[in-house]
Structures are given as structure tokens and as C-alpha cells.
Amino acid sequence: MNTNKGLEIFKKIGLSVIFPLLMFVVMLIITGTNEKCYVNGKLIFLSGDMLQQVFLNASMTICVALAIWIQLKNGRFDFSGGATMILTAIVAGHIGYDTKNPWLALIIAVVLAVVLSMFTATVYILGRIPIIICTIGMTLFYESLTYLVFGGQGIRVFYSSVETSVFGRLPGIFLPAGLAILAFVVFTYFTAAGRKGKILSNNQRAGVNIGINEKKNVFITYIFSGIILGFAAIIYVSQHEVGPQSGLATSGIMFSYIVPVFMGTFIGLASCDVVGIAIAAIGMEIMNYGLNCLNLGAGGWQQIILGIFVLGFYSFSAQTDKIQALFARMKAGKAKV
Amino acid sequence: MKNAVKKFVAMMLAGVMSFSLMACGSSGSGAASSEGAASSEKAGKNCTIGVAFYQDSGLATTAAKAYLDNMSDTLNCKFKYTVLSQTDEGVNLTKIQELIASGVDGIICTMDSGTAAIVQECEAADVYIGGYLCDYDISYTQAYDAVFKNDHFVGTAIDGYAPDNVIVGKQMFESLLEYNERNADAPITHVSLAIFPVWAFPAQTLAAQQFIAEVDEYNKTADVKITCDPLNEETDVLAFAPMDSTYFAKHEGIQAIMSFAAGTGFVYPVMVQTGNDKNIKLFTTGFDGGEEKNFGSAGTGTYQQNCVTAVESITYPLVLLLNKINGVEFKDQPEDAERVSCDQFIMNSDEDMTAFEKNIYFTANASDALFTPEDVLNMTAYANPDATYEQLKKACSTITIDSLK
After folding, report:
1. Which segments in chain B show pLDDT lower than 50?
2. pTM score over 0.90
3. Which of A185, A276, B276, B355 is the most exposed place for a label (fewest CB within 10 A)?
């Protein structure tokens, strides 16, 4: 029994890490056979910079991907997350820079993101409007505020100051990223709202009919998504200059991190969704670093390669049931023999 | 009823009489009114000028608005602002049409995008148009007759130098030499380059080539030679996205990056993220705000050069537009509209940055501008018949950091 359990855990770990491992090996082969990736005889894909970049970028990706997924798994597609993050980043960045205190910026970011998320939830519940329309409206509202706060100049100096940008660099970045994962785990596995969310996402009407209080679920989900967005905001402002935004540009920023969400839900089948998303983010960042080494890190070719890869991955994952059935048949056939 | 009508008529007559008496009594202020009229004549026609910026925020935009708004009363001119698209010609044409429909008499436009059609629209509406922060190179090389020969296009003040007059490469090399003179014990001897694609900014590629030529020339006689990594099409050309984090691995051992592209937005963030902001210096064009914290000997000392074109150079198209609106021209006005290369504020020392921090570009305070509203008024042909085109051109194109000291 214990051996079976141990084998099961080993299998889960193996299946979870197989994606980034495969990605690493594939990129190693591609870059290793390309002379562009050698500088002074050294393969730059294997430099220490790779690990640093993968962790730095994956931490940000994980936070935003979890913020998207926490709403998606509760049956809501929230466009306002990006605007909440950007507005929060500007305010927290200014206060943090003025006081030269990144810890204060972190606290302000979490508190403000929760407040803004709660406001979005309130408008959604009181307005009784579809979530997409409500969150697009809130996105436009928050974006307009980015032109009003602090003279509409955004925040440019927070990330470039060594003393304020600790949460955008190693090892400080692991704190907000880790706390975001913790918030997601607490919500999903330790709150009733998190567990009920699955029912609501499958069939909202049926969930309400069997007694789930959707309003309460909305508020609790938004509190946790606000916490995660706050952590995402502090990493974002510690790595980038943040300007005022308009025309749903913030949704573009948020959804640029969506790929690991869908890949993560598939990879997470072997373990759980949060592990899947983290693993998917790391795998994607390894691929991005490899493309950078090949001078394909930006522009049309990067988009084409990424698009084909993601499409292929989704196509493969959509056939999961058939693949499992094939394996089952093969197993049954072997047993008969 | 008749009584009511009589009373009403009587009241009206009394009112008319009172106003007549008031008019007679105020003859003393007649002189003031005529003075006002004369001063308004000097200030020119009451007009409105639309300004189409390429972005809706940032130091240059904020400072330009402050500079223009402060002149509104003196020039008898109101300003309206709009923001153009950086990618969509159709949107830009619509934005200009909106300005025309709102009743502007002139337009200052900061992008060369769909310009031939825009100038045609302006001509049809009898609205004049000028350029600012833009070399109008596409129009200059592909639609010269339609734009530069058009009577309704007054010319443009370039953000730096025209592609046929590039000196940024030489200037960047001089900044590097000045740095090495100041830091003779630890000079920069290994640099790499960063530019935007040639199809968008041909002048940057020319500037980079010019820089490399300067280095080669210098190395012929120098004791301590400078290595400049050759311009790599794949690594050093930034596709309007931040540079790859692998840039530093590909340029192993560099001590400085000479960025002809906007380094603050596209190079510096990656330097910070990869921890290279402490050991590698950045010489770049542009200034977005915040660079001063890590400039020269401040902070991490990453930035060793920034350069921008003075906000006051907008005076060039402004004065030419005001002349046109008031139906006058300079005696020495050239037949075709011109594109005027403008010297820049080049900050490559702490002293330069201190001087720059007192200018309107940095403070957004109109009282910190080099030209007062009265100065600008005196540059126009209608307020000052002795004013010349050459004087205007010189005043707007020769503003350097020394002008601030």
C-alpha cells in the first residue's frame, strides 16, 4: 500500500516536471546546434543568466496567471484584473518611492488591489449586469483613473531604485510570488467558497438552486483575486515603468500572461492546478529564453513559433481522453496476452 | 392692456437713454479701449491652433502644453490638443479632420503619417499646418511636392537632426571621450550599440555607423583603444520591444551601451532586471523623467548621457502658423517649407543635468522656458516687422544645454 502511494507521488512529480524538462532538453538541442548561441566558445543558453531570467519572469507570470485562473475556475472572465493591477502599481509605487519603503508599497498594493476588486464585485452584484460587460466598464474606469492620479505621469522611478525594487529582483521576488500561490491555495482548498466555485463554474443556476450563495462567493473570490493582483502589482512595478493606460490596454497586459493558465490546467491534471500553472510558466520561460538566444525573442517569428506551439499543445491536450483510452486498451491487451 | 404696453415702451426708452448717457460718460476709457485694440492688433487675430501629439503623456507633452498655454493671452491664441495613433494613418486623418471641424485655424502635428492626405484636407479647409518633433522624412523623400511645396504646410522643427544631416554618432562618441577624460583611471574601453529598425528610424543606423567610424578613427592614434562590438542586425536592433535579456551574454564584457534608440524605455529596464545597471553604463537619446536619479555620479550612475530637443523649438511652427493666419510672411521666407534640424540638450555631466532640471522640459513650469510669450510675439512678422525667418530658425534650432547655464 505504502509502495503504491510512494509510486503514485513519484509518478505525479515525474509527470509534472516532464514539461519544463522536455522544454529544456529541446531548447538545449536547438541552441546547442546553432552557432548564434555561442559567444567566445560558450553556449549562452547554459549561462547562469538563464536560471535568473526564468525565475524572474516566471514569478510575474505565475501571479497574473493565478489571478486570471481564480476567476475563471469560478465561472467568471474578469477583464478588470489588468486595470486593477496597473492602477495599484502606480499608487503603491509612488507611495513606496516617496517613503523609500518597499514593504509599505507591498502592503499598500495588496490593500488597494483588494479594495478595487471589492468595488468591482459590488458593481457586479448591485448592477446585475453580465460579468464581461461589468468588468470591461470597470477596466475603462480604472484606466481613466491612471490619468488622474499623480498627475497622469504613471510611475517611472520605482523599478530603477535598488532600495525600492527588491520585490522585482532575486531573491525578493519569491516573497510576493510565494504569497500569491499561498493565497490561491488557501482559497481553493481551505475555503468553502473555493470548493463551491467548481459547482458554480459548471452550472451557475444549478449551484444557486442547491443553496450556494453566489453573492458571497463573488465577494470572497474577489478578495482573494485582489490579494493575488496586489502581489502581481508589486512585482510589475518593481520590474517596469508603468505609464497611464487607455483603450483596454491593461486587459492586453493581463492576457499576455494567459497561456500558462490553459497549459497549467492540463499539466495540473497530474497534480493540482496551482502546480500545473507554476510548472507551465517555468516551461514557457525556458522556451522564451531559448528563443532569445536564437535572436527570435521578439517580433513576428517569436509570435509564429509561440502560436504554433500553443496551438499544438492545446490540440494535444484536447485529445487527452482518447490518449488515455488508447493506453487503457493497450494495457488491457497486454493483460490478456 | 394699453397702459402696460405704454409702460413697457417707456421702460425700454429709458433704458436706451441710460445706455447712451453711460456711453458718453465713459469717454475717458475710450483711450484704453483703443489701446486694447492696438495691443490686440499687435497680438494678431484671435485664433485657435490645434496640437496633435504622438503620445498623451510624458515630460515633452506636459511641458509643451504648459509652454503653449502660458502664451495664450499674449498671442491671442487658444490651443486645442489631441493625440495621434502611432500606427494608423486613418486614425490620424480623422483626428486632424476633427480638429478642423472644431474650428482651428492652424495645426501643429508631431507625426508624419498620412501627411499628404492631411495637408490636402487642411488646404481644402484653409487651415495651415506645421510639424514639430518630426523630420517628415517619408513626406520629404516621397511626397515633397504634395507636402513641402504646399502653401498650407509651413515646415517642421525636427527632434534632433534630419537624416541627411546626422551628427548624433559623433556627438555620442564625444560624450564617451568626455566620460573617459573624467574617469581616466577607469575609462570605458568596450561598448556595444542599440538602435531601432532602419525602416522606421534610418537616421539611427546612420548614427551608429558614424559612431563606429569615429571609434575606428580614434583607435588609429589612441594609446588606450576602444572596442565597439559590430552592429548586429539580430541582436542590436530593437523591434520596439525591450532588448533581450541575452543581450549581455551576447556582448560579453561590455562596459557601456550606446543606445540611439530610446534607452530609458527599451534598454534600461532590462539592465535593471538583469542586475547590469551597476556595472554597465548607458549613453542614450531621450529623457523620460527619473533618469536623473541614476545619472552621472548619482545613484547607480548608470546613465552617462541623455539628450532631448528643447520644448521651445515648437516656437518654429507656431510663429510660422501665426504669420500665415495673420496674412503676413517674413521678408526672407523661403519659397518651399523647410525641415529644420534642431540642436539638442545633451546632458553628459552632473553640471549639465543640474542645468536641465531647471528648464521647462523638466519642471513643466512655463516660467522656466527660454522664451517668454513676449519673446515669441516679437518673433512674428506681424508684431515685429523687423523680425526675419533666419532669426526665428536660429533661435529655435540652436538651443543647447549651454543656453541653460
Report:
1. 16, 18-38
2. no
3. A185
